[in-house]
Amino acid sequence: MAAPSEAVVYTFGKVGSTAVAAALNRAGILTHDIHSLDPSVLKRQARAALARDAFPPHHVSLSMVLRDRLRRRPPHLWFISLVRDPVAVRISSFFENLPYRSDGLGVDSPPDALIEGFLAEVKLDYQLGWFDREYRDQLGLDVGALPFDREARAAVYPDERLVLMRADCPDEAKSDILGRVFGRAVGLARRNVGAEKPYAAAYARAREAIRFPARQLDPVYGSAHVRQFWTDAEIAAMRAGWTTPS
Q1: Which helix (H) or strand (E) holds 166?
Q2: Domain presence at residue 15
Q3: CA spacing 20 to 30 A to 135: which of 72, 98, 127, 155?
Q4: How many whole angstroms separate alpha carbon 175 and alpha carbon 162?
Q5: Is 79 within a domain?
């Protein structure tokens, strides 16, 4: 079988997708970096941008243009997705979107105000249904039914033309997997790192302070999504890092 010539990095945000897409592009592989193919999501995001008198983000416009072709899943194209601790993802996304808020909450707000804002509006379990809403409903791929190598932190599914990787899979391993799939050298370098963003200091302070009662973490760390990708010991460690001390 000929090596694929096109890639779609199709992931939830804040999981390391920018670095993967950039590495594939540098390797000469036509690569699209998107977060949704769901029409309702794309329309909502486009309307939100237009309401700010701005163009929709590139990934939204790209998804709209390519949606019909990507859903047909031509044989020369592979999909790549990544997963990360869902609570860490939701916190990162909240801070990434601070510049677009109109309520005065921003990177210079006190940590207590940022934490209060996060707790008031963010659903920790929102990410858990993403693969169903996106891969199953848009592509017909039931990711939840696929086996995953939790020790390797990655898996390749040739029949589905899909690669799944955890964000904490080492860059060398990611590069090796992608190189074998696409038949050429792929070298990862860190991109779009939160620690280098304007909100980095506020993010670090809030991340250090924010904790959740066990009842809020139960739906996340007891979910089938988390159990598919992480071992019991890893789940316990992630959960402990976010739990309010008793």
Answers
A1: strand 162-166
A2: yes
A3: 98
A4: 15
A5: yes
How many domains are there within the chain?
1
Task: Judge whether 213 lies within some domain.
Answer: yes
> Which tokens in the block code for residue 85?
């601790």
d(CA 18, CA 33): 7
**What is the C-alpha to C-alpha distance for residues 84 and 229, in angstroms, rounded to an integer?**
9
Whole-number Å distance between alpha carbons of 107 and 113: 10
Q: Output Rg (C-alpha) for the chain, integer angstroms.
A: 18
What sections of the chain are H helices per DSSP? Answer: 17-26, 39-51, 58-72, 86-96, 111-121, 130-131, 171-182, 200-209, 214-221, 224-229, 232-242
**Can you tell me which residue has the tokens 């696929």?**
146
Question: Which residues span the domain enclosing 144?
Answer: 6-242
- 3-class DSSP state for residue 31? strand
Q: Contact, 139 vs 71, CB < 8 A?
A: yes
Strand 162-166, strand 77-83: pairing:
parallel
Closest CA to 164 of 78, 72, 233: 78
Token pair recorded at residue 65: 């243009």
Which of 88, 108, 62 is closest to 168 using CA atoms?
Answer: 88
Residue 109's pLDDT is 82
Is 1 inside any structural domain? no
State the Cα–Cα distance between residues 233 and 238, nearest whole angstrom. Answer: 9
- Check pLDDT > 80 for residue 215: yes
Q: Tell whether the model's pLDDT for residue 193 goes beyond 60.
A: no
- Give pTM, 2 decimals: 0.90
Q: Give the Cα separation of 169 and 150 in Å (integer).
A: 10
Q: Picking from 122-126, 191-195, 233-237, which range would have the lowest pLDDT averaged per residue?
A: 191-195
- Mean pLDDT for all residues in the chain: 91
Question: What does the block give as tokens for 169?
Answer: 């899979």
